[in-house]
Amino acid sequence: MLTRQQAEGARRRAAAMLRDAGIVLTPEEASKLEIADCALGHLESEGLQLITYVNNERYCAKEIVLFPHQTFPQHRHPPVDGRPGKQETFRCRAGIVFLYVSGEPAAAPRCRPPEQSTEYYNVWHEIELGAGEQYTIPPDTWHWFQAGDQGAIVSEFSSTSTDDADIFVDPRVVRAPAVAG
Amino acid sequence: MLTRQQAEGARRRAAAMLRDAGIVLTPEEASKLEIADCALGHLESEGLQLITYVNNERYCAKEIVLFPHQTFPQHRHPPVDGRPGKQETFRCRAGIVFLYVSGEPAAAPRCRPPEQSTEYYNVWHEIELGAGEQYTIPPDTWHWFQAGDQGAIVSEFSSTSTDDADIFVDPRVVRAPAVAG
């Protein structure tokens, strides 16, 4: 679990990256930036920072901040209450993000999984997104992603977000935010 | 109807405003920026510029560019095929936008309707959005909006967009894009 100090440091760093990219948050939003280390204990290599702008029963929009080479673990969005799983469009705003999804594996992938977790990454169809580029991930599709050398800022446009329902390959992952008191 | 030259000028101006705000489009997106004068023939005062990032059967995301004091005419999004009308969240990214929706009228509204069209504007509940601020408009709610002195860039996150179904107060409005040959 992250200490409060670690979470605050990550929050400040993510807020600075957003500012540098010209993305404005209200002070209240900046103070609530979510730091998700997935309970893995190594945020710098696995996890992400995000702000949820809106999440209602029809649509959701978030801004995701990834530190250099930070990786979000492989997961999928299964059907929930008889509705298809979450569908999401990733639009890169700054930096570079590498997406890996089910499908034809890349011959020479540009990324490696975090060394503590290699056995929990097994889809290798690669999509590279630079600023202004986007990709839509169908519901219930295995995927993970990693930022390039400069980190990345990614807008996520999607159907309703139901993080609790997400299925991760790595059984250690806990998606709910947790910060030590 | 806009001439091709007028549309190209508006496209270049909108692309420059996006660049100034740090929002990156692909060259293909920039070349397809939609110029919507609503067939009213005075784009500078009534209309908008936009790029639709994604519009599928579950969600939609767009970037809207408004020139200084440019106004988008009053309209609502009615139910379509038994589904509630479009719900949309406007998030201001740069500049200022004034939203007017049904409800308690502002005592001293900051904006006036375009002078050619005053009779087609009649909701006056005012919401002012600066960069980083947002507001969600419920389905089937009358609304219109106008940019401040510097223009505005607004991200629109919403349920599926079905422009053809929109209902405008002004019977002259045609929402489908039209550019002279």
List the helices and strands and how they pair.
The structure is a homodimer of 181-residue chains.
Chain A: H1 4-20, H2 27-31, E1 34-36, E2 48-55, E3 60-66, E4 71-76, E5 88-101, E6 125-130, E7 134-137, E8 143-158, E9 167-168
Antiparallel strand pairs in A: 1-2, 2-3, 3-8, 4-8, 4-9, 5-6, 5-7, 5-8
What does this structure look like?
In chain A, 12% of the residues lie in helices and 36% in strands. Chain A is built from 2 helices and 9 strands. In chain A, a hairpin with a 4-residue loop joins strand 2 and strand 3. In chain A, 44% of the residues are buried. In chain A, strands 1, 2, 3, 4, 5, 6, 7, 8 and 9 form a 9-stranded antiparallel beta sheet that branches. Chain A has helices at residues 4-20, 27-31, and strands at residues 34-36, 48-55, 60-66, 71-76, 88-101, 125-130, 134-137, 143-158, 167-168. The first copy, chain A, is mostly beta strands. The A-B interface holds A 21-26, 29, 53-54, 56, 58-61, 87, 89, 91, 93-94, 131-134, 136, 155, 157-159 and B 21-26, 29, 53-54, 56, 58-61, 87, 89, 91, 93-94, 131-134, 136, 155, 157-159.
Which labels suit this protein?
globular, 2 helices, homodimer, 181 residues, 9-stranded antiparallel beta sheet, mainly beta
